[in-house]
Design brief:
By secondary structure, this protein is of the alpha+beta class. It has one domain: TolA/TonB C-terminal domain (2-Layer Sandwich). Helices cover about 25% and strands about 30% of the residues. It has three helices and six strands, in the order αββαββαββ. A hairpin with a 5-residue loop joins strand 3 and strand 4. The radius of gyration is 19 Å and the shape is elongated.
């Protein structure tokens, strides 16, 4: 029994240690950028932006729409704090958008030597 409890405790600690969350890294305060200037600072690491939908989401016959989100790109190119600004139709695509943006990874543009973090507003269209 003691061996079993010790083993359970060991695996619990091991699992908890491996599930740490990323922390936002800001080497300065984020600046506001537009879709016209984002390429001067950050470039999407994978040029194919996609995400899978669950069978529940597909079976709902979701209608076309869009979601506008605002989020932070930190100094390491990770996205943080996605916030839905507008969703049309309301709430239909919000959760999928937040999950998708949270998985985006950016690399600094050649002109962004200092890896300036930014606040970015993005609209994602669903068809």
């Amino acid at each position: 029994m003691l061996y079993e409890n010790s083993l359970n405790f060991f695996f619990s600690i091991l699992i908890l240690g491996c599930t740490s969350t990323q922390k936002i890294v800001l080497n300065q305060n984020p600046i506001e950028v537009s879709k016209d200037t984002i390429d001067e600072y950050w470039v999407l690491k994978n040029d194919k932006f996609s995400f899978p939908l669950s069978s529940k989401q597909i079976s709902k016959n979701l209608e076309d729409g869009y979601v506008t989100l605002q989020y932070v790109i930190d100094s390491n190119g990770n996205t943080f704090n996605p916030e839905i600004i507008k969703s049309v139709p309301e709430a239909a695509w919000g959760l999928a958008s937040v999950k998708a943006v949270s998985k985006q990874k950016f690399i600094p543009a050649k002109s962004n030597i200092q890896k300036v973090p930014e606040n970015y507003t993005q609209t994602i269209f669903f068809k």
